[in-house]
Design a protein that fits this description.
single chain, globular, 6 strands, 31% helix, 157 residues, Alpha/beta knot, 18% strand
């Protein structure tokens, strides 16, 4: 686990589903993004499970675990961009900046109001009105790809 900040990071607020966490770990490893896991998690998270969830991608993963929301905010690594179905601003109107941290809420409940209010920016991924939401790992991938497109895909060939 390294602590050198990248041009972009993803933070998971109290993730519920280990498979989604594993998919986001793989996303971060492949794109060279930092990952912040804000605990408590809805599953047991230890180094063995991190390696298993991230398959063989955990070796290339730079991540930090934060014991609580307060601990994460003390270490706040950049501008927080919260993905939420409650936001009025759609993804296509958001300008990502180098150093942004894309904050993803819990699969079961999103984030509490105090977390949403702490975000520097809130956005939603536009989708059909008759659908509730996308999978958190899929959403993280969409947001990471758009953010990296905007800031120039640094460090990737």
């Amino acid at each position: 686990m390294k602590t050198v900040p990248k041009s972009l990071a993803i933070a998971l607020y109290q993730p519920d589903i280990p498979q989604n966490t594993g998919a986001i770990m793989r996303l971060c490893a492949c794109f060279g993004l930092d990952l912040h896991i804000i605990e408590p998690c809805g599953f047991l998270l230890d180094d063995r499970r991190i390696r298993k969830a991230g398959l063989d991608y955990s070796q290339g993963l730079d991540y930090q675990r934060h014991a609580s929301w307060q601990a994460f905010m003390q270490a706040k690594p950049g501008r927080l961009v919260l993905a939420t179905t409650k936001a009025s601003q759609p993804l296509n109107q958001v300008r990502f900046l180098t150093g942004d941290v894309i904050l993803m809420g819990r699969e079961s409940a999103g984030v509490p109001d105090e977390v949403a209010e702490a975000a520097d920016q809130r956005l939603r991924i536009p989708m059909r009105a008759d659908q509730r939401s996308l999978n958190v790992a899929m959403s993280a991938g969409i947001l990471a790809a758009e953010a990296m497109r905007q800031i120039g895909w640094p460090g990737l060939g």
